[in-house]
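User: Can you predict the 3D structure for this chain?
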Amino acid sequence: MRKTRRTSRVGESVREALVEVFRHDLKDSRFNLLSITGVDVSPDLHFARVFLSGLDEKETKALVKDLSEAQGRVRHFLGQRIRLRYTPELDFRYDETSLRANRIETLLAENPPRPDDDDEPESEPHTETDDES
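Assistant: Here is the predicted structure, written as structure tokens:
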């Protein structure tokens, strides 16, 4: 989804409202362990993709699935908390950014960069000279 100043502002307000919905309106305490890492809103403000992360990958993916099933209820509570002409449809996704970052850090730890050999002078490429005597 394309980012503009308006969609960024609306995405941030949707994120803040969803935090309040998770904290106060939904009665499931498991949602308190979720972190909303980002919200991407479509340019027409009708769709919002919500990225979630948590401590346990399997549990977080299960919670994302539960939220997707309860999307209508979450959208209802969201509509009560934000002032938009149209409450966006929500698409909950598991945010894999932290997993990718951990994977990259693991790969870097396993394969440390080699030190550069700056102390040795670079050898000149061998060129043949014409010996016409």
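The chain has a mean pLDDT of 82. The radius of gyration is 26 Å.
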